[in-house]
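1st attempt posting a full record on here, be nice pls
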Amino acid sequence: MRISLVIPNLLTWDGERLVTGGLERLAWHLIDVMRDEGYEVDVHQNASRDWQRTVQGVSVRGHGLAAISPLAALESIHHETERCLYLSILQEPRAFRPHSLVVSHGVWWDGKGIAAESHLNLCRSVLEQAAEVVSVDYNFKNVMRATFPDYADRITVIPNPVDLARFHPPAAQRQGKVQVLFPRRLDPARGLDLFLDAMAPLLGERRDMEAVLAVDANDPAKTGELHERLADLTAAGSARVQTATFDQMPELYRRADIVAIPSLYSEGTSLSLLEALASGCAVVASDVGGITNVVLDGFNGLLVPPQAHYLREGIAALAADPDLRARLGANACASAVAFALPRWAATWRGVLLRVYGDP
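the predicted structure (as tokens):
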């Protein structure tokens, strides 16, 4: 049995590069689970023109109609597929195949200028069509239960996973300057400006602290602008910017003392948060979205409102207290076990078999 994974983009729209982000990483985890279970898998995505690639043994098909109309691209995908698994509810009306799974990445419409009513209507449409919706956090299910109670039983919550074999604490105690890591995409909602506003005065006051920004390579122009913004701090040795691949991230977490997850708006179960916890880092995170399902303030991290002065106070408190960092880091590492990849995969196998049947 073949299942077609439908995703906005696993590769860039020209099909030349892998996209690095949480949704794409989740896609690869799902592909592994489906293939291990015995399903055949291919991928269909939006594209600037029609193309086909084979990546890690998986056929990826780009549909150029997306450059004209996402709905037309979806019709093209449906014409070439039989069973679909839709990886994300996109922000426009869509038609879904009956007896399909749809993944929701939480309550994403709480940003400025976003019309919640239209997104709620979209969610209702999805819940009416899909056999089941898998949400990566409990906030989506809670909002849907309050808004459309008749459909709440169609939502299964499976928080995102972390690979504990890749992400784990360092063998030896961290040495040198107190290193504060920002391991995020260059997306305004992920809190880059908030992080920079919080760190600038701290780096000026403390010579024993440095900021490391490990950012995605999806937008070279944004990365170049970030280098320019931090030129003075980089020259002084107080800050470092690098584009990091997924394979480089485990070592960056192991070198970090503090990890900042300063999301401005809701997100699902943040993969960068889980990776930081598993690596035994002391985390300062915004009290938004699925983050609040993972971090218990004062136990396995610090939760702060998404404002620069609160983030600065949290980072400063951790920088000044190595015992607090050690205690939060140990509890963080223990907490990450609940999100271990094998447990996540076993839950997903049950959902796949329930919806699509024996491969």
